[in-house]
Design a protein that fits this description.
mainly alpha, 61 residues, 2 helices, Cortexin-2, transmembrane helix, transmembrane
Amino acid sequence: MDPPNSSMARLDLDVDLGFALFFFFVLCLFLLVTIVRCAQMVLDPYSAISVTMYQEEQTEE
C-alpha cells in the first residue's frame, strides 16, 4: 500500500484555511463598513433623512 501523499493532505488544509480566511476578511470588511456608516449617522443624523421626507413631514403639521 502506498503511503499517504502529504502534499495532497497539505493542499486540502490550505484550501480550507483559504476559505476561512476569505470569509474572515469579508466579515471584517462588512464590520468596518458598518462602523463607518454608524459613525456618520451619529455625527450627522439629519443627513440620513432624505430632503423630500423632511419637507413632507413639515407640511403636514
